[in-house]
Amino acid sequence: MEKDKETLSLNQQIYIETVYALCNAHQHAHIKAISEKLGVKMASATEAVRNLAEKGIFNYQARKNITLTANGMEIAQRLDRRHQILSGFFKEILGCPDMRSEKFACSIEHVIDEDFLMRLAAFTVFMNGNALKIISEFQKEYNNASRQKDSSR
Please, which residues have CB within 8 angstroms of residue 58's CB and are 6 or more apart in sequence? Predict the structure, then answer.
């Protein structure tokens, strides 16, 4: 992934994730669905998809279904894995609500390096396997402190 991140912009990574999600739901994507999901004009989506097709990430022909190439699928699955590790850490260890965990994971997954990501994944597994009581106590304590802070406003 580190090599891919050097050649793929944040915007391109977001397009890959979007097409991956649409392909998982419908076996393919369309420019209209991509533009709607990302809130961009169809011309912008078309340009981005063409660019990623030239990089060998998407299978694309005008007015046809868009799918991921084998290389594109590999990149998309790595991005998804990064997202799952981060959102899992935020939910399972820190006790963040699903919406916030997803939002933060979406932001951080594109900038975190592989070593740190693997450390978070290992820590999450370790804590879930060995320290459920500690995690539960942390989450309880944090939620209580958070409630007290909110009630004092």
Answer: 19, 49, 52, 66, 67, 68, 69, 72
- Say which CATH class 83-151 falls into: mainly alpha
**68-121, pLDDT tens digit by residue?**
999 999 999 999 999 999 999 999 888 899 999 999 999 899 889 999 999 999
Cα–Cα distances (Å) from 30 to 14, 64, 96, 98, in that order, read 15, 7, 34, 28
CATH topology of domain 2-74: Arc Repressor Mutant, subunit A (1.10.10)
> The whole model's pTM is what?
0.77
The residue length of the chain stands at 153
59 DSSP 8-state letter: E
